[in-house]
Amino acid sequence: MKASKFVGRVGGLAVGLGIGSAMAAMPWVAAADTTADAASSIDLGGLNLPDAADSASSFDFSNIALSIDGYSLFQDGTASATSGTGDFAFADGAGSIANATGGTGNTAIADGATVGGVHTIADATGTGGDTAIANGDGAGSTADGGTGDYASATGEDSFANANGTSDYASATGDDSTANTFIDSNTTVIANGSGSSVVIDSNNDLGVAVGTDATAGASGTNDIAAAFGDGSSANVIEGNYDIASYFGTDSNMTSAEVLDGNNSIADVFGNGGNSELFDASNSIAVAVGDMESAFAGFGNGLTDIEPASLAAIFDPSLAAGTLDATLLTDFLGLL
To answer: How far apart are CA 49 and CA 39, in angstroms?
Structure first.
């Protein structure tokens, strides 16, 4: 949605300034018309553009820059935009910087002013098809590891980094962070003031929703999801694991899988804690406020708290052993 909003605004502005024909020559513009009446019907990569007059009113014309296909179409004030062949770069705001270089089909959009010496920066510098959007004073976004990366940062001092291939990073909220390193097919979403997600592997999903919520993973094919203010979920050095936290947390507790494979650690409640340590094919689930579950040093372990819940899932769980068929069936549903 943010991409649609900003690219749409830029397209409308371009038409209003009489440079629609230059944009029409780009490969990602399906149709263009330089007349004001046609502005609202222009399609930019399948995105409907708003009316030029409406969109232009929201720009800081004293600090604005646009570069397309390696050509600077206009630059005013301290905003800076740089593009390469087949690329698109737009910057709006004092000291804002947009760079779209290194490949074909890269898009960089920076919309915000410099705050405390921190510029609003969007860098799409991968090998092609990368998108970087920074929206907010001091926001930063980077899509630069390979092809098909998408990074969007929305909020003051927010930061999003997609540094691999076909990665998706979205940070929404002041001081939020969504970060993927040199990996591929990874999705990180941070939504909330101070929220943070860091992933350092392939085919992972990390989600943190809530003020100061955090999530992270360093294995492959893992899921780490935290929903609630102060919640935390982490997978460390394991594969095909799930760690999830649903509830608020003010006690530094978390749902965590450490050095295990095919395992699940879940918390459903406020201030709970669930931990799996050096345990594969295992489950630890805490249900209820301030409940705690732990399983470690073995395979096929389980701890579901409170204990009365165990028999509901499977009678074997109450005895502290795990029905392997149950776990396999559960993972198969994901």
So the answer is: 7
